Inverse folding.
């Protein structure tokens, strides 16, 4: 994908030879770019009330057709009120599809280099902005760490 368009499907040398398509191996980076030049601190300062999630973990596919994922928040979920972090809250289980989530983004901050916690073995080069997403689907409270 580039600029929101599917450029090509992944093909091995073998499948490219069978189909006549160019070789397009699996890539090992994830980049989301195109947000405002705004820091996370600035985004928090402009939040009336919300949750600040710092890590999503144990991400698993629930429905491949809709790309529905489930997982847990981890290592920091904070309550933001009137532009300030006012306290910690518990972890949650979530159910979201990245397609639906990206369609609900109302603000994207500055893209920063990051290391994905869950998939860091495969995606060692990643860059992502902070995102403001209304109605992120927290399905239940997690008793985990």
């Amino acid at each position: 994908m580039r600029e929101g368009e599917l450029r090509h499907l992944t093909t091995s040398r073998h499948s490219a030879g069978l189909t006549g398509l160019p070789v397009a191996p699996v890539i090992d980076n994830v980049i989301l770019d195109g947000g405002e030049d705004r820091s996370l601190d600035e985004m928090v300062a402009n939040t009336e009330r919300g949750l600040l999630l710092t890590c999503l973990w144990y991400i698993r596919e629930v429905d491949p057709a809709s790309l529905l994922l489930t997982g847990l928040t981890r290592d920091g979920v904070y309550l933001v009120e009137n532009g300030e972090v006012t306290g910690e809250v518990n972890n949650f289980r979530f159910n979201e599809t990245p397609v639906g989530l990206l369609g609900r983004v109302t603000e994207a901050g500055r893209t920063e280099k990051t290391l994905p916690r869950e998939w860091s073995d495969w995606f060692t080069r990643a860059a992502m902005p902070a995102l403001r997403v209304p109605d992120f689907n927290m399905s239940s409270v997690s008793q985990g760490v």
Observations:
- Residues 38-109+135-142 form one domain.
- The CA atoms of residues 104 and 135 lie 8 Å apart.
- The radius of gyration is 18 Å.
- The first strand starts at residue 29 and ends at 31.
